[in-house]
Predict the structure of Molybdopterin molybdenumtransferase.
Amino acid sequence: MFRKVKVEDAVGFRLAHDITEVNLEKKFKGVAFKRGYLIKKEDIERLKSLGKYYVFVLDEINATDFVHEDDAATELAPYIAGENIFYDEQPSEGKINFYATTHGLLKIDKQRVISINKLKIPSLPTKHSNIPVKKGDTVAAFRIIPLYCEKELVAEVKKILSSPAIKVVPYKLKSAGIIVTGNEIYNGKIKDKFYPLMESKLKEYGLKITDTSILPDDKEIITAEIKIFLKKVDILFITGGTSVDPDDNTKLAIKEAGVNIVQEGNPIQPGNNFTIGYFDDIPVCAVPAAALYYRATALDIFLPRLLAGEQITADEIAEYSVGGLCHFCKVCVFPVCPFGKV
Ligand SMILES: Nc1nc2c(c(=O)[nH]1)N[C@H]1C(S)=C(S)[C@@H](COP(=O)(O)OP(=O)(O)OC[C@H]3O[C@@H](n4cnc5c(N)ncnc54)[C@H](O)[C@@H]3O)O[C@H]1N2
Ligand code: MOO
């Protein structure tokens, strides 16, 4: 299979695995020598400068019970990758990366990914489930930790992956309605800041705002407008009036328009008052004023899932509590942070 030899004795033999170089001056981390490379006399000093005084070289003996790290990754990659995922054609340093083929919602089958990693020999790290990804983003990586593993292990991983563990769901919804509420905005006392905010957020997901209006804090007027908008849009947002003031009517109006509210509010801060409901398949959301102030709130956490057409349940909403408190960093890097990651 392979054996350890002094670099001086390795001349004329083929390398059993990729050899990595990390060179901070050149800002390089990558393959210096590929698996299968025929070692020459002039390579001895270079190998030593990479700290390799011994190397593993391939024997001619064909070990039928073992699988090389490159072959394990190549064999398992199609079992890992689901819809809208592509992966490296060739492993590098025994590893294959997985990428999104489209913008959309990343879905990871967490339990099965954990089951694979519990086998200890394979390593399958992924990004978090339910995050928005862009075309070309890396979403997962696979390699076995040792140079070789037993064939049975590959079979065991395949058994866990009876269907793929990673996919990207493209955004389905296309048109949005925005109803801005608030007497102060309706009466022109202050300028509306919600429409421009929602427009820039939704544009990121390819969503167009097709219908919009600014209404006073009047439950009946808001209810009537919700009913009209529900005939025209794929998703509806009603902003402001979401908390406990006497003129906060948004959630009441949503209910009176016949929308099934999943849960009033949620355990994410900021964005506690963000409320999700459904009218048939159309999501209807109350958006609290906190979204005007903070770069990331519950709105941003649920938005990609709603736009991918998911029906969010009350049980799932409760799961967001751990990690649901923003770190309120001076420089916000959401979504590349722990906020809202389940
Ligand atoms: N006792 C409690 N107080 C508060 C609670 C609570 O649960 N108990 N929740 C807090 C949370 S969380 C939020 S968020 C805020 C405000 O929620 P609302 O969505 O009801 O916001 P409004 O009262 O309508 O407005 C608050 C503030 O924001 C300005 N605003 C609203 N819409 C616009 C707009 N389109 N353009 C510009 N500015 C807007 C509004 O003028 C007010 O200044 O309640 C907490 N309190
Ligand atoms: O609903 Mo408030 O949005 O938590 O800050």
Q: What stands out?
A: Residues 16 and 57 are 5 Å apart (CA to CA). The longest strand covers residues 208-215. The chain has a mean pLDDT of 94. Residues 180, 182, 184-185, 190, 192-194, 239-245, 248, 272-273, 288-290, 292 surround LQZAQKY5 (ligand 1) (CB under 6 Å).
